[in-house]
Description:
Layout: E1 9-11, E2 27-31, H1 36-40, H2 42-52, E3 56-60, H3 69-82, E4 86-91, H4 93-107, H5 113-116, E5 130-135, E6 147-152, E7 157-162, E8 170-172, H6 183-202, H7 208-230, H8 235-255, H9 259-271, H10 275-290, H11 297-303, H12 309-322, H13 336-352, H14 365-377
Parallel strand pairs: 1-8, 2-3, 2-4, 4-5, 5-8
Antiparallel strand pairs: 6-7
The structure holds zinc ion (ZN).
Residues 140, 192, 195-196, 261, 275, 279 line the site of zinc ion.
Amino acid sequence: xxxxxxxxxxxxxxxxxxxxxxxxxxxxxxxxxxxxxxxxxxxxxxxxxxxxxxxxxxxxxxxxxxxxxxxxxxxxxxxxxxxxxxxxxxxxxxxxxxxxxxxxxxxxxxxxxxxxxxxxxxxxxxxxxxxxxxxxxxxxxxxxxxxxxxxxxxxxxxxxxxxxxxxxxxxxxxxxxxxxxxxxxxxxxxxxxxxxxxxxxxxxxxxxxxxxxxxxxxxxxxxxxxxxxxxxxxxxxxxxxxxxxxxxxxxxxxxxxxxxxxxxxxxxxxxxxxxxxxxxxxxxxxxxxxxxxxxxxxxxxxxxxxxxxxxxxxxxxxxxxxxxxxxxxxxxxxxxxxxxxxxxxxxxxxxxxxxxxxxxxxxxxxxxxxxxxxxxxxxxxxx
Length: 383
Ligand SMILES: [Zn+2]
């Protein structure tokens, strides 16, 4: 049985934030990150629209990049005192993912975090509140996925919490909110969206819907990412990238991801390398590695007027350099000594990552190490 898991209602156009005026409810907690949503005015506009709907609001501000479980407990405590019937995640994916986990601990104060790191272990939600996701970056597609990535800082591990319970009730995909996104965040998140499209397309789950979304999202990223980076005020390009991010998210919510994400989660947790930036480093070599096990890359290459898996890998490398992104892990200032010391640890964790099971080619830990080493130096994989 195939079922398409998608946000309950999807409002996607420039200016769609205003639709908050039409939400029915009593109280909302808005969860957001540092200060970008306040500075850009999006937070005040969201509060204003909810107030117009007769909804009382409370703001939980300051969710950090790569949010920890401790932050999620803090937010849940605020929610338990305020008793909202809506939770609004407004900002980058860190804010929205944290808001999702706050929602879980608000409804289930005794839920065990470690238990929920096992796939589909989140208890039933919507007993107290429903969820609105309003992304300000165009990458993870968290506004339509049943995924929240939470970091355990002590262990240096990023946990993807996976459950369709976490798929938002309303997604507001408004490109205007992205207009103030810095260039490096635009490029990193856009390359993440691209990676979702590629990995979902070649994953070992066959799904016609996901395939169409992945192809469509890939096409939009190649046509719009450079413009969104170079001309941040171009709302058309912003909206296009926002749509591509949603499409990539919807594709992988149903067809899953592969080892680019398995490799990336580890260097993100250990070295703090931005998720999209490491994805863009691993993706070309993983395309080369996976091309030995799947015939599907030429179909994706055709979307951008190319022919082979190698063409697609090179096109990703070209786009990556055109948006000024790094081509190797060592460019993040990680010494060879430090890398060698941690290689076994991250390769084993990548092997155990849930995304590895959906990759079209079953890797060994040794192969993952070889891909890691090639990408550390910015070399090409060919095995
Ligand atoms: Zn991703």
